[in-house]
Design brief:
By secondary structure, the chain is of the alpha+beta class. The chain has a single domain, classed as Orthogonal Bundle (Transferase(Phosphotransferase), domain 1), CATH 1.10.510. Helices cover 50% and strands 13% of the residues. It has 10 helices and 10 strands. Strands 1, 2, 4, 5 and 6 form a 5-stranded mixed β-sheet that branches. Strands 3-7-8 form a 3-stranded mixed β-sheet. Strands 9-10 form a two-stranded antiparallel sheet. Helix 1 packs across helix 5 and helix 5 packs across helix 7. It comes from Nocardiopsis metallicus. This is Ferric iron reductase FhuF-like transporter family protein.
C-alpha cells in the first residue's frame, strides 16, 4: 500500500511545538463511530440546515465573549484553526496542498460541553507537483506548476469557508472583511510560525503565504488590509514576527487584556518591547 500523501505532514509536525492539525480520516470510519453526544456537521450540512446560528448562540451563551465581534472571530478560531493550519503548514513544509470541500470538512459539536471538538477532514485529496513522489497516488491531483497548485488549493479553501463565513456574517453582523481578514492573517501566521520554530527563512515562508493569500483573494475573499512582517531583532533566528492586517477584537470581549501583541492597533514600539521580552524569556511567549 502506498503511503498517504499527508503522512509527511504528520511527520514534520511532530517536530513543532505548536501544530494544531485536524483529525484526518475516512468518511466511513467517521460514521462508524458511536455518537457519544457528538453531532457531526459538515460545513455543507451546518450551513444548509440552519445549524450555525443555533451553535453560535449556544457557544456564546455558554462560553462568551459577550461582544458580537470577538464572538464571531472566536467562532472561526474554534472551527477553522486546524483546517487553516493543515493547508498552510502542508504547503510550506511538504509542498503538498490539501483540497478542502464543504462536504469533507466536519465540525463536531460536543453537546455535553457545548463546544466544538477538533475538526475532522475526511477522504482528503492533495494537490502535488509533477515531480512529487506521490504524484501517482490515487488521492492526489497533479498541478502543472506551483501557481496552479496554489490556485487549486485556494479555490478549495474559499469554496469551503465561504458558506460558513457568509452565514456567520448574516447572523453575527460581523463584516465579511473582518472574517476573511482573520482567515488570511492566520494563513500567513501558520507558515511563519513553523519557519521561525525550525530556524528557517521567515521571509521565504512569508512570500509563499502571500502568494497563497493572493490566490484566496482572487478566488473571492475580501479584506481591507493584509498582514505584514515585523522584524524586531534581525540578528536573532527567531527575531521576526508579524502584525495582523485585521483586528480580531478580542480586546472588546476582555478589555483588561488589551490589544494582542500582533494587533494592528498596537503601537510598534510596545510590540517590539514585548517581543524582545519573549526572546529573553520564552516562558512569557503565548
Amino acid at each position: 500500500m502506498k503511503p498517504d500523501p499527508l503522512d509527511a505532514l504528520h511527520g514534520v509536525c511532530a517536530r513543532l511545538k505548536f501544530a494544531p492539525l485536524p483529525e484526518i480520516t475516512g468518511l466511513d470510519q467517521l460514521h462508524a463511530r458511536p455518537l457519544d453526544g457528538v453531532q457531526r456537521h459538515s460545513v455543507a450540512s451546518m450551513t444548509d440546515h440552519g445549524w450555525l446560528p443555533v451553535l453560535f448562540d449556544k457557544l456564546q451563551t455558554e462560553h462568551g465573549p459577550g461582544h458580537r465581534l470577538p464572538a464571531a472571530t472566536n467562532f472561526l478560531r474554534v472551527t477553522l484553526r486546524e483546517p487553516v493550519f493543515m493547508v498552510a503548514a502542508s504547503l510550506y513544509l511538504t509542498g503538498r496542498g490539501p483540497l478542502l470541500t464543504p462536504e469533507t470538512l466536519y465540525l463536531p459539536w460536543d453537546t455535553a460541553r457545548s463546544k466544538f471538538a477538533t475538526p475532522a477532514v475526511v477522504d482528503v485529496r492533495s494537490v502535488v507537483l509533477p515531480d512529487d513522489p506521490a504524484a501517482d497516488h490515487p488521492d492526489t491531483v497533479v498541478a502543472r506548476d506551483e501557481d496552479e497548485q496554489l490556485r487549486l488549493v485556494a479555490e478549495g479553501l474559499f469554496a469551503t469557508f465561504e458558506p460558513l463565513i457568509d452565514t456567520l456574517h448574516a447572523h453575527s453582523r460581523a463584516g465579511k472583511r473582518t472574517l476573511w481578514g482573520w482567515v488570511l492573517d492566520t494563513l500567513h501566521f501558520y507558515m511563519l510560525n513553523p519557519a521561525r520554530y525550525l530556524g528557517q527563512d521567515a521571509e521565504q515562508a512569508w512570500e509563499l503565504a502571500t502568494r497563497l493569500g493572493d490566490s484566496v483573494v482572487a478566488a473571492g475573499a475580501v479584506t481591507r488590509k493584509r498582514p505584514r512582517l515585523f522584524p524586531f531583532a534581525p540578528d536573532h533566528p527567531r527575531g521576526t514576527w508579524a502584525v495582523r492586517g485585521t483586528c480580531c477584537f478580542d480586546y472588546k470581549g476582555d478589555p483588561e487584556h488589551g490589544f494582542c501583541t500582533t494587533c494592528p492597533l498596537k503601537c510598534d514600539s510596545e510590540r517590539k518591547e514585548a517581543l524582545s521580552e519573549w526572546l529573553r524569556d520564552p516562558a512569557l511567549a503565548p
